[in-house]
Design goal:
With 91 residues, the chain is mostly helical. The chain has one domain. Helix content is 86%, strand content 0%.
Length: 91
């Protein structure tokens, strides 16, 4: 079961990072639909670079929480979610 979880995590990371890379590579044509300003497109590419790190954490979080819920552990994911929401609100 343990190895299955990590295979799922690696698969979700691979998919999300691949899609992020695809969007980064084709940022000019994609964002060209919405704007012709090169400064805006350059800024969008920088934001996508930040997205690489965010997608890593997001894909691990989503996969791990779903795996915990699947094996019947609901208290920890819910408690962690509530704690993170409260912690983010207390700047």
């Amino acid at each position: 079961m343990f190895m299955r979880v990590w295979r799922s995590v690696l698969a979700s990371i691979a998919v999300s990072e691949s899609l992020n890379l695809l969007i980064y590579v084709f940022a000019a044509p994609i964002f060209g639909i919405f704007t012709q300003d090169p400064a805006v497109i350059a800024l969008a590419r920088q934001i996508i670079l930040v997205g690489f790190a965010l997608e890593l954490g997001r894909s691990v979080n989503i996969t791990m929480v779903r795996c915990l819920i699947a094996v019947g552990d609901v208290r920890f994911p819910v408690g962690a979610a509530l704690f993170s929401r409260v912690a983010c609100r207390m700047r």
